[in-house]
Amino acid sequence: MTKFEVLILGNSSATPMFGRHPTSQVLNFNEQLFLIDCGEGTQMQLFRYGIKGSRINHIFISHLHGDHYFGLIGLLSSQHLVGRKNELHLYGPPALKEILEVQFKYSDTQLRYPLIFHATDEHQEQIIFENNLLCVRSFPLRHRIPCTGFRFDEKQRSASLKKEEVERLHIPASYRRLIKNGVDYVAADGTVYPAKDLTDTPPPSRSYAYCSDTVVHDDYLEAIRGVDLLYHEATFLHDRVERAKETFHTTSLEAAEVARKVAAKKLLLGHFSARYKDLQPLLSEARTVFFATELSEEGKWFLV
What we know:
Elements: E1 4-10, E2 24-29, E3 32-38, H1 42-48, E4 56-60, H2 72-81, E5 88-92, H3 95-106, E6 115-119, E7 126-130, E8 134-140, E9 148-154, E10 160-161, H4 163-168, H5 173-180, E11 185-186, E12 192-193, H6 195-198, E13 199-200, E14 207-211, E15 229-233, H7 241-246, H8 252-261, E16 266-270, H9 280-287, E17 293-295, E18 301-303
Parallel strand pairs: 3-4, 4-5, 5-6, 14-15, 15-16, 16-17
Antiparallel strand pairs: 1-2, 1-18, 2-3, 7-8, 8-9, 9-14, 10-13, 11-12
Helix pairs in contact: 8-9
């Protein structure tokens, strides 16, 4: 089975606190690594958990509040210093390009590797990355400044062969991939064996959605509907819902309500306020509405 899992590097909002780092996470899809947001200290967290920066070829930045991107210039610079040569794709708000150009200009840095920037659209959903196995979309959230979420959808998975039947018919190895892709097998005597009779139904595709800073509203719900694992910010307990609205954030109870509305299979809470040393009350509150909820824990992998 293709690997599809998320490593939490940071789960704190605004400032580092109680051993928690600002927002950042790594998504591993089939051993291809994607970095989602890059708060302060991200490269140290990568080192801590044994993730080589050179393996990351795509970085997604949700918005330009510092707790989501202040670690980026350090990571990009370190990749330059260690001799990276392969290209790196960066997805984020249009102004991020200018910010980086100023940083590199005044540090007299000319990267040794190609840094390819892709501007995200704060107004509409769009496909920003796609290959034969995975599709990544950005979608607008509602925060104090332009902000997008990201959804990672695995494409339809290949059917698995019925091994005993394939071996009984002595089907050549060179033909087996075609059968998995739906091509019927024609034997030497002209007999046609339908691909559906030689394969098992493929397992369902999986999906992961990342909702960083946002106040709850209906506009983004369709973009995350039916997702297998939903990461949603939960900055406050619901007794501070007015503060959440004022700062364009979400409570743990609201995050759970979102997960229930969109029929997510699992919910992962994150972006915790520095006011909370103990996070269990946020988890308990969310589970009153949506039981399949977990806290994002730094250094822990979560399966999609």
